[in-house]
Amino acid sequence: MWNAALSVLFRADASPGLGIGHVMRCLTLAAALAEHGCRCRFACTKETLDTVAALRAAPVEVTVLPEGAGGDPAALRALPPTDWAVIDHYRLDAAYERGLRPWADRILVIDDLVDRRHDCDILLDQTVGRQRRDYAGLIPASALVLAGARHALLRPDFAAAHAAKARGPARRSGDVPRLLISLGGTDPVNATATVLDALDRADLGLAATVAMGGAAPFLEQVRAQAGRLRPPAEVVVDLAHMADLMAACDLAVGAAGTSALERCCLGLPTLLLVIADNQRMVAAGLEQAGAARVVELDTDSIARQLAALAGDAEARRGMAERGMALCDGGGAGRLAGLMGLTLRPAVAGDGEDLLRWRNDPVTRANSLDTAEVDRDHHFAWMERVLGDPECVLLIAERGGVKLGTVRFNSCCAGEWRVSISVAPVARGGGLGGALLSAAILRLERERGPGVLYAEIRAENRPSQRIFEACGFDRSDADDGVLYYRRSAGPPVSAEAIS
């Protein structure tokens, strides 16, 4: 468990028209944080609380904002200060986020529109095919960008089901497919009715399950229509274990929202319907990746495509494999781990750990100087570094456990040489990029923006990927050493912690 004092405030809304996706993915992240003792609180409108039954039942504090105050940062500043503010809202932008500083120590923005500026420390966009350069000029240069489906905020049961499905046997090709219909928690345009018409027209005899939220405005009409099918379709409402249902199905017709990534995670081949503008890139990315097929919201088109996919087991198998390769369901846990990371200045008492890390065989093999460091030499160096105002030596911790170190040495005014080291116990956990990006952010806050340099062994490809993903460009090479340079400019990216 981490430091239980870490507090996180989520600002997200829902409504029958807006849907429940923003709040549900925030609840997923809140659950991952709560596992480590973090205190999570939601601030939302009354309509949100009325729309999302799961929010009422979740073990989080909920503050209902005064009517008309949803876009006023002062409404949040009236609450106790927070370590993290998480903003997942299409109607809020940099002006709102700026109004939360310094009330919130750090700000995470969840977005997928790329249509406005943000003032944040981390930006998460789980859209398939999204890249860090898409947000160039829209966020601070030092912000960390987590882009792509690998970072999707899915509930932990999806990660578990993903692993189980990856280990389990493939379904026999002769089996009759089971169909899932999932058009979002509220489905405000009643796209479900069109899909049920298509299922009736296709006359495939499929066993079908419709998943909806209790706040869906057309729920009763859908129930009546589903009951008239042959065989009748099952309708489930506010299902708590959606992963189990998806894992039991063989194909789906669904919307291109967060649920599309859930289906990818579980290898569920899908006909995708675009029922909102912000879903277009998700749909295009999944189709391009071969994990889904996009179909028009039209009865004949859906019936035709449904018949084709239901009768092609090989196509479904290929779509399932490609979908599972896109998303493993672990995004929420990885993000929670990043949010729990803290940096502090090194002290003399860190000397033993730094010496042990430096002389670790793997660390030595990747260092410019591969020789083992003498103990006396190390502590003499440590004393010099801690007394040098032109050197910044930081220790990364999570829950009091030391995980790595970053060092900045001043070359001249506004220029620094940087090196990082991940503790052996934390190696392989994707910490390097998060550690480097957090350290750069801290340096720029305390010393101002500047030019950064790094020297990396030519054969140390993992380290090169970390620095490249954090905005460093290769500038030169000499005698087995690659030289990298970063000016205050591009945001760092998802690859940094992959």
Describe the structure.
This protein is α/β, with parallel strands linked by helices and 498 residues long. It folds into three domains: 141 residues, 3-Layer(aba) Sandwich (Rossmann fold); 171 residues, Glycogen Phosphorylase B (Rossmann fold, 3-Layer(aba) Sandwich), CATH 3.40.50; 157 residues, 3-Layer(aba) Sandwich (Aminopeptidase). Helix content is 36%, strand content 23%. The strands form three sheets. The chain has a seven-stranded parallel beta sheet. The protein is globular and about 80 Å long. It starts with 6 loop residues before the first strand and ends in a 12-residue tail after the last strand. The model has no long low-confidence stretch (mean pLDDT 91).
List keywords for this structure.
Aminopeptidase, Rossmann fold, seven-stranded mixed β-sheet, 3 domains, 498 residues, seven-stranded parallel β-sheet, globular, 19 helices, alpha/beta
Write the layout of secondary structure elements.
Layout: E1 7-12, H1 21-34, E2 39-44, H2 46-51, H3 53-57, E3 61-64, H4 74-77, E4 82-88, H5 94-98, E5 104-110, E6 122-125, E7 144-147, H6 156-167, E8 178-182, H7 191-202, E9 207-212, H8 219-227, E10 234-237, H9 242-248, E11 251-255, H10 258-265, E12 270-273, H11 280-288, E13 292-294, H12 299-310, H13 313-326, H14 331-339, E14 342-345, H15 351-358, H16 361-366, H17 375-386, E15 391-398, E16 401-412, E17 415-422, H18 431-447, E18 451-457, H19 461-469, E19 473-478, E20 481-486
Helix pairs in contact: 1-14, 7-12, 10-13
